[in-house]
Structures are given as structure tokens and as C-alpha cells.
Amino acid sequence: MLDECRGPAVEELLGNSSTDLPLYGVPFAVKDNIDAKTFRTTAACSTFNPDPAVEDATKGVVPACRSLDYAFVFALTVDDAEIPEHSFDGLFVPTSPTFPIIEEVANDPMQANSILGTYANFVDFLDWSALSIPAGYRSDGLPFEQSLLHMALVGAHLRGFPLNKNLTSRGGVFHQLTATSSSYRLFALADSKPREPELRRVLAGEEGHEIEVEIWHLPKTCFGEFLATIPFPLGIEQIELTHHTWANGFVCDFSALQNALDITEIGDWRAYINSITQPLPEPPMRRSITSVLIANRGEIAFRILKTLRQMKIKTVTIYADQDASTPHVRHADLALRLEGNTVANTYLNAEQIVKIAKAANVDAVIPGYGFLSENADFARLIEEQGMIWIGPTPDQMSDLGLKHSARAIAQRASVPTLPGSPLIASLEHAILEAERIGFPLMLKSTAGGGGIGLRQCTDMISLEEAFNSVRRLAIANFANNGVFLERLISNARHVEVQILGDGTGQRRHQKVLEESPALMVPSDVRVQMRSAVIRLASAVKYRNVGTVEFIYDVDSHNFYFLEVNTRLQVEHPVTEGVTAAQDYVVTKGVSVESFKPCSGRISRLVFPEDVRIDSWIEMGAELIATGKDRQEAIEKLRRGLGGIVIEGIVDSDTAQSGSYTTKTLDAFRFVSPCVEILRPGGHMTVQDYPGRTGLWSKGIPPSGPMDSVSFRLANQLVGNKEHVAAFECTMNGPSIKFHCNTIVAVTGGLCNVQIDGFTIPMHQAVPIQAGQTLSCGVLESGYRIYIAVKATFELANLGGFHGRRLDATDVVYFKTFSGLTSQNSKSGTGVPIPLQPNTIWTIGVIPGPQGAPDIFAPEGLQALFDAEWDVHYNSNRLGIRLRGVRPMWARPNGGEAGLHPSNIHDAPYSIGSISFTGDEAIVLSVDGPSLGGFAVFCVVASAELWKLGQVQPGDKIKLLPMTVKTALELEKLIEHHLTNLTVPDLLERAIKLEEPHATESFSCVIGEFNHRNTKVLARQAGDRAMLIELGEEENGFQISHSLEIITFMNQHRIHPILGVEELTPGVRSLHVKYAPQTEPQIIYSRLLAHAESYDLPTTIASRNVHLPFAFDDKVSQAAVDRYSATIRAEAPWLPSNVKFLETLNGIDKLEEVFPRSTFLVLGLGDVYLGSPCAVSLDPRHRLFGTKYNPSRSHTPRGSVGLGGQYLCIYAMESPGGYQLVGRTTNIWNPEHIFKESFKEHTNHDPASTEVPWLIRLFDRITFYPISESDMDGKPSHELIQISEGEFDVLEYNAWVARHQDDILQTAELRAACRDSAPFIEDLMKPYDLSTQVLAVDNSEQHGESVRAPMPGRCWKVLVTKGSEVKKGTVLAYLECSKMEVEICSLADGICVKVNVRDGCIVQARDVLFVIDSSQMSRKAAG
């Protein structure tokens, strides 16, 4: 290009001239105005002072012309350009570099004309002809092939600054906002006005930063002119940009930087100017912070606590009762309890938290995220009370907390926003705005967050459908129905910029994968985002931490403001992984975070050492992985996540490449060895067979399937071993999405089963593909179904899905999985289930262990087997309640065991035991208690237990007594047919194998012998267990019996008895469970031999366990009130259990007895999970009492109850019958269930501390008084005191002998008080269980009768007589088996009859409502 040529001769002529001009800027510029030679010889030359109108370029030309003539200059030019005179016929001269655009001509016509003549003059000198060829314009409006310089500007030449005109007046055009490489520092020069910035490249060992710059395009023809405006000490040199490209930029003479201000940390010149041109108010005097209250819980509270600890600041935390043992409580310097049982009156109770903070005299309050973190009123309340609020100012929270007002602030700060609307007041207004903006749109609630109140609208119809719905959601969740519209970016990425300010200055769209920096967004766009954030934060003088959210349009490369979170962000650890605390601009490496957005517990997770774990619980956490680059960070995260559901995302090509957007999950195809629960079935659980065995003596039931035969059949059909876990559902089937190819089988009760809408047969193996959905309907007959999958489930150590029922969105993984290897087509025959309605079951039982004539009258016992029993509506996996004949008792009461004749000294149960809890019979099932104080008259045979899983509430049961021999034969038949995948009704066949027997001939006594002067009786307790009783029932507790029992057990641990699987102790009994198909007499003989194999010790290990005790507490009182309101309104022990016991025993103050009593633990599992059954060692403190009749359905965890002379501590919320006298702390630690070491101790080391139960056999429990608030305000480990010790039996017997007279006198006084109690006659009367059953008119009615599908309690009626209903409208809710059953209308019409009320009990087939459709028709006609 000739315009680039300026030969050495011209260079010499120009010498040190400051004017740096191309060739055409020398003498040719004056050709048409004046003859050079004449001009050179005139006086005007020496006094040359050009008119301002003359083009500026001539200023430097005249001195250079004094020794030149045109011929000389032209000759030099041709020589320097090395243009041979005769080597070509034409010369292509691009004139476009000097061709002006219209705006340039309008601004300065003379200069434009002068420049335009450059090449015309050159061609004239050659004496050639010129041909002009138009080439058009570029896309940016500049002439084609315009020769431009790229200028990187950092200071006063930026847009909006005073010197920017020096660029625009010379054709400069803004190109983009970007940044330098991280090898520069930014300074403000001293004493320059206006202030001038300068860049300096870092020195060796110095840390640099990316500095924001603007890239401008400047025509080269104007570069010299622009350079002339730049004063010393500034100059031009190449500047390195972020992509390792280069551009011209300003540099400074090093000497001028000596007194300059280093402003590198501010990040760019614009932010610096804002900080000095907008003087801020004087900051208040900073108070020193020595103590901080953390107004939160969980992971964020624990993370803040650890940081405060590092800063040597005292930590004060708050907690609700359920969080009492979590790390943020345990590790705090001071932990204070919140009153209340819900989130609303604990962590969201601003007044209570402020009150606690004031009482603790803290200097400051920090909110974390969630709860009250963005509540401006709470922040004001803190500051009004004189404490420091560690967060944004209340005004900032109010202004930025509403999306529409934050959007307005962003627009005023020149932050890009999406096309959108103001707040919309009506649907009509929304339609007008939508027409203006254009679809697709996002309808947004201005308040709130978390994806609530967001709806995508693709057209007017969807907008109309969404408008009222979003407003309702907004008012319900945020008490603000303000909404607005924004343009929807379909192909977008979500980018968050986190900020720190010192105060002076879309899927219900949740994020699953986070990474920093946002490498998939161009670096120059990230720089622009950071600049926008600084402008926004500066506009409101933002204080503390926050997050500004943007959406990045992948297609257009533009970004737009979304909203501001005025709080600490969950994702802050990702940024922390790649930034220093003092620098949130420069990043080092890549950080990635992942979490699973659903409820539940991560029960087991082994963390690698190279990921950061943010967690407030010992298991279950966020994972943050950091690496030198994206690939390394992703790999670390993938390894850390292991088998968690997110592994599907992290392992995908989309995540690996970083090409994901906000829509990625919508189309993500998840393939993994797991299933997803779309809709859980009724009480849907994961069970395995035979469940958790070996823990019966600790009160932990085996669980497992209720119908083990159907369960095992399902596994055999799909090719699993029979013990492999499967799903169990009650009454309603589930909807399950499969994410892998496998085989399924559904067995049990009769229901409709479909795969993707196509019906498949039950009791048959069926292949299912990844992405398909298995759906099971309502059971038509039977009560439970089982779904087996060709795989092995992951189970917690106690079985099941993390110890709870399955919920929607749960993902259940397979531990081992081989995929679909063959088209398995096995089919079988299900268990024989009688059809509904009017179902009658015959269930085989073994009489005993308690029988006639000691507990039951002989004729009364026969009546129990002759009767038909109704299955109660409140039956479940804990037990099946039966309604039928009343027992005839052989005694008036239970003596010291309790005042009802059903009460016995607590004894262990067998699975399938049918006991009387007062006047109500109950079948104890697989989740039932192991120990209790109620008489058992028979036990369901092992081969018949499956029927307990299929009986429905409302069914009838007939109990068929059989011998053990028959029961074992029946079990053999079941096992034989099960291997052939058929299960016929074998009960009648088994009964025919033996001679008929009368009930009285079914003796439950296996044998009797005398051992150490004590009568020992062995009673049959089902076909796999016997109950060994010591002494007589009326004698109750004897220390010698207890010593014999525990020594027998200890000896068995050392020398196991062949065939014995487990021993469970009671007060005066020992339950022996033995191997299936074993003759009772064989076990009995082995037990006799074992009893003679050891000597009794005189001392035994016995710890001292000191527990807190809140007497007659409010929680226990509430449980008593609940019983009175829902089960039995009037009873002698109501309304106060404490007053009842005081009156019954003649005690003035029961509260004074407890601190003086020591209770010896005789058994565990009195009401589940390690609950101790204990007796007072001082006989004078043993009280008369009775158990609830009927029993409670709810007892609070930690409640202390008295049943007769025995004490129980309820380790979990459960049913119960003991009189409630107070409450202690938690004695069950569920965290130990999930420890690897737990399995090792279940076989069992009695001294292990790695088990969930606190209390051990033969512990001595004492209580110390404490207030409820003090007890609930501390974790259990701080309240419980345990010391080792031993119990000396001889010493104890001697003590009893010394006080024998006083003991007898006290017992006589107690008996007299009992007999004279004013309620003693009412106490002995049977309870009429029919009083709460509603008398329903079941006669034929005009209209559609809506009947109860099963018996239950109607807990909520939703319509009244005269209500207009549609088909499917919910009319009422029925409680049955702890489940809510919807009662729906069968037709459109008017409700003309309502037979039920809230709280009433109905029977199956009762008419609850009558719907008259004809009235609806008449109404429509009228």
C-alpha cells in the first residue's frame, strides 16, 4: 500500500518533527493553493500563520517545504516507494482510506475535500489516467477496506468522559468492552486535571490484574491527529488483551508513576471516578465485634460458625428442638433454644430471635441465606435495638428485593435489561405489554425467588392461563401479587456475579450444577458483566455481600440483568474456590459445585480428599471441586459424587464440554441404574426379607414385608434371590419411572398394572425399558402389592430407604445391576386372596403363651376362637386392631402389673402375637414392639403371617387354632409350592393332616422344672419361639429372677445354644426364638442343659445413668389432651395422669418421688427402639396403676410413663399405654444406624457405644429435675451423665431385709388407697368401644350414594347439604391405616344428604353422601 510508504529521505527531511504524517501529508497538501517555490521565497513563509480553516495537516508541512520543489519531492517519493517506471501499465490505488462518510463531510467539508485529493494529486504527477471503482460500505458503516487502528482506551477517552470527543470527531467508533490480560496494574496520575489514568505492565514477581478497557476503531488517516492531542508523559505502545491479542494503548513514562495512586483493586477507571466524584457520607464509628448471633441453621450456620471461630469471635447460635444435636449447636460457644414447633414460630420468628440476641448481649447478627436473610423489617429491628446487622442496609434489601424495582435501578445504572414491562395490574394490561414486547415471554412475580412465581408464556393463550395463577402463587408465598413481563431467552446461560460492598459506594428454575469462572461465557462479556455490577452496586452504595444474576444469550452474545439477591449466596463457595478473599476479580483455576435438589437424607457418602465439603450434618453435603482448569475440576467432582443422582449430569457430554444452558435439563436423557418415584403408592417402602434380624432384644423390630410369600414370589419371578429388597405399597399402587432396562414383576393384592398405559399381567416377569413408566392402580382385593426389580437396592443398615417411606421425586439406586440380559417370561400364581366385598379370612394360630385358667377363663378362651373379628380401620404395619367379643378373664385385675386383668409383668412378644391391650385385641406385626405388659392368647402361625399383609380394614377374620406340628407341616407345603411359583390355599389341607382337637386340648405349656428353688415354666409362643417364665405371675419382680435371666443370656453369648437365634428378656421371662422347622422339645432340652452349665454371680456390671426430668411437662400434657379429644373423652386417668396416680396411691406430690428413686432396667423395647422397662429398686416407690384402655395412638419422644410398678421411657414417637408423668431427653441416637460399625455390634457387644440405643440391660436410672426450657435448650449429650459401676445382689437383698417392715407398711397403705379410690369401680368397667361409631342411614336414597370404601375416621367433611359438586370433587377425607383417603363425588349434582361429621367413625359400605344429579339438570334447564 503506497499510503504506508514514507521513504528515508522524507524521514530525514522531517527530522524530529512531532507531526507523524503519511506521505500524502507532506508538500502535496498545498499543491492547488500556492506554488511551493514562490511561497518559499516570499516573506509570508517566514511569518506563516495559517488560518484555522486550513487543514491541520499543513501546520507541519510548511517548514518541511522550505528546501523542496515538487519535482524533488515526487522523485523521492517514487524512489522510496520503489515503483519501477516501465514495469507495469497501470497502478491500482485504493482511494477508500481517504473517502469520507457523510457525517465527516457535514462536520468539516474543507478537510474532507483536502484528504480526498491525496491520490488524485499522486496520479496527476504520474501523468496517468484514473478510473474510480466504487466498493460500497462495510457492515459497521465504514467504507470498504477502511484501514483502521485498534485502540485500547482506559481513562478520560472512555464513553461519557470529556476527552471522548477527540475520538468521535476523528471517526473513532466504539467496538467492544473487554479487559487486558492479568499482567497490568492501573494508576491515577498525581496532579493531572482532569485526572488521568495509566497502565503499567507488572514487574518481575508482581501480581497483575485484568483491567477493563474499551476497544475503539480509529481510521489510520486520523491517527496522527489523535496522537497530537496526547500530552507528555503519555505515549502509545502495544497492550496485551484477554485473548492474548494486542491493541494500541496508552502507557506512561515510568517517572510519572512515582507519586501515582495504585487503583488496581477497583478494577477500572469508571468505577474509580465514581468513587471520587460521588463523595460518600462519613462512615460511622466502627464498633468492634466480639460476639455474633447466627440467625440460621444447617450448613450455612456451621460455615459461618467456623469462620467466626477463626476470627476469634464468640459464636451464639439458635436452634429448634429437632436441631438440638446438630453441629452448629454442638460447636457453638453458646446455643440458645427457640420456642415453638414450626419454622414459622422458630427460625422465622423475628421478635423471638431479637429477644434472644438482646438477652445474649451480642454485638451483631448475621442471617446467612434463607429464613430472614432478606427480610428488611428484621434488619431494621436488629439495628433499632443497637446491634449491628451484618448484611445490606434495610433500604437496599427493600429496593433490590423486588425484581421490578431492582430492574429500574439497573436501567438507571446503564446495566442491560431484557425488553420488559412495568408492574402489570390486569390481564388486559398484560396482553397489551405482550403485544409490544413480543413472545416468548416470562411472567414473573416481583417478590420472592426459588423459582416460585415464574411461568413461561409462548403465546396469548398461555399468558392468559398463567396470569391469575402466578398472581395467586405470589400472594400466597410472598404476600405480594405484583407481576411483570420480560422477554424469554430460550438458549441461555445463567451467570451470577457475587459482590462485596463496604456501604460507601429459570426450571422451577433451580441450579443443579455450578461452576466458576463462567468459562463458557466469553471473557470480554464477563468483564462487561463485572463492570455492570460495579455500576449497579455503586448506584445504591451497596453494603455487604450479595449476588447479581444475569442471563447470557448464547446466540447473540448479549447479557441481561435478572435480579439481585441481597444476602450470602449458597453458591459463594464456588467463587471462593478460585478467588482470594481480598480479590473477587482475578480467578485462579476452576471451581465446580453440585447438589441434589430434593428432600431426604444422604445416608452414606465417602468424601475424597480433593473436594471441599460444605455440610452441617455428618453425612449429606454440597461438594465443591476446584482444579487448575475445567477438566480437572469436573473430574474431581465426578469422583466425589460417586453414585449420587447428579452423576448423570456431570458425566454427560454437555457438562463435560460446558455447552449446557438453562434448558439443558429439559431435554436431558438420564440413563442410570435407578428408578424415580413419580407418585408413591400408599405407605410405599423398600423392604427386604427377612428384614433386620438379631435386634429384637433391643426393641428394634425386623420389619420386612408384611406378606413375605408375595414378596418372595416377586423376587423369584425376576430371577433375584428371595432376600433382595423390593417395593411394598398399601392400598394404592405407585407410578415409577425406570432409568434403565430391566425386568419387573408385581405380586400380592389384585390391581391394574400398566407400562406406559398398556396393561400387563400380575405375577409375571415383564421387561421394561429406560424411560418407561410402571403404574399400579387402587387395589381391588387384598391390601398390599410388591414390585421386584432385577437388581439389588442400596439399603441403610436398618433397611428401607433411609429409614422412611418413599416420596415423589425420590430416586432409588441399585447397588448391583446386570441390566436386561434376557427376555425373562416366568409367570406364577399369586397368594389366594378372597375377593371384596364381605371378605372373610381364616388364619391359623397357635394358642398361648398366656392361656386358661391362669389369665383367661376356659369358656372365654373358646369364645375367642369361635368369634368373627372385624379388622379395625386404624390397622397398619405396627399392628392390626381387631373388634369382636370381649374376653372372659380368670382374675379381677393384674395386681402389681396393672389394674386391668389384661395387664401382666412385661414379657417379650413373638411376631404375630394377638394380645389384649385392655379390652381391645391387636395382632402385633413386623413393625410391632418386642416387649409389653399385655396378655397374649395366641400367635399367628409363621406360614399364615402373609395374610396379615393382605387383610383390609373392614375384613373379617376367623382364628383357627392348630398345633405346632400342623403349623410346621403347613410351612413345608408353602415352601415347596413357592419354589414352583404357585401358592394355593393350603390351610385346610394342613388341618386335615391331624386329628381334630378341642381348644382346651391345645396346651401351651411345653415343660416345667425347678431351678435353684424357682419354678420355671416353658410356654409355646408360636411355632418358632417359646417363653420361659420364672416364679409366679403374682409375685412380679424378683432380683434373683432378673439375675438368672441376664446370666443365662451372657452364658449364651459365650457358648451359644444350638438352634437358638435370639434371646429377649422381660421382667420375669425370657423369650427364646429358634430356627424354623425345629421341634419345641428339642429346644426345651437344650435350654435345660444350658441352665445347668453356669453358676450365678453375686455382682454384675451396672452403669449409673443420670437423666434430666421435666415433671408433668406441656408436651406430655398435650398428648393426654389429644387422646381425650380423639380416642376416649372420659376415663379415670383423664384429664391428668399425674393426679390420677397421686389419688390412686395416696401420694401428695408424685414429683417428690422421682428424684429419690433408682430404676433398674429389666428389658429394652417396651415400646420400640431401645425403650427401657425398669422397676424401682426401692419397693416403697413402686406404684399401683393401669395402662390406657384403649391405648394411645401417639406418645411424644422422651415421655416417661408408669404402667403398674414399671417405668418406661419412650425412645420414639409411638403408640403407648403407660400413664405419662413427664419427659426426659432423647435416649435414641439414629445417627449410629448409618455407621459402618453398627452391623458389627448387632451380634452383639453389650458394652459398645457405637449403637443407637443409650440404655443397657441392668443399667440403674436416676433422674434430676430440670425445667422444660433448660432441657430442650441443650443437646442430649450435655444432659446425660453416665458412670460405670456394678450391682451387688447380696448387698441389695440385705438392704431390702433391713427395711422390710417399712416396705410392707407402705404396700398396705398403697393397697388401701387403691381400693378406696373414688374411680375404682369405673376403672374396672370394660370400655364400650362402639360409642364413637356413627349410626348411618344406609337405606336406599334418591340419587347417587357415595359409600365408604373401607372403615375409618372421617376427619374432615368439605361439603354441606345443598352444596353443588362436580364429578371427582373431594367431599371428605377418611383416615384409615394412618393414611388419608379421598372420598369423591361420583357425579355432577347437588349434595342432598350428608351422613357424616368431623371425627366420626364409619364402617365399610356406609352411605356418607347422596348426590342428586336431577336437581342439577333442573337447575340448568331453569
Poorly predicted segments: 1-45, 53-60, 76-86, 137-146, 280-284, 506-514, 580-621, 642-651, 1234-1244
Given the structure, what is the number of helices?
40
Shape: elongated
Q: Please identify the structural class as seen in this structure.
A: alpha+beta
Query: How many beta-strand runs?
Result: 69
Q: The biggest beta sheet, please? A: 7 strands, antiparallel
Span from first to last CA? 94 Å
- Strand order, largest beta sheet: 30-29-32-27-24-35-34
Question: What does this protein look like?
Answer:
With 1422 residues, the protein is of the alpha+beta class. 25% of the residues lie in helices and 25% in strands. The strands form 16 sheets. It has a seven-stranded antiparallel beta sheet, with no helix packed on it. The protein has a seven-stranded mixed barrel with strand order 36-43-40-41-38-37-44. A hairpin with a 7-residue loop joins strand 52 (1159-1164) and strand 53 (1172-1176). The radius of gyration is 44 Å and the shape is elongated. It starts with 7 loop residues before the first helix and ends with a helix. The relative contact order is 0.05.
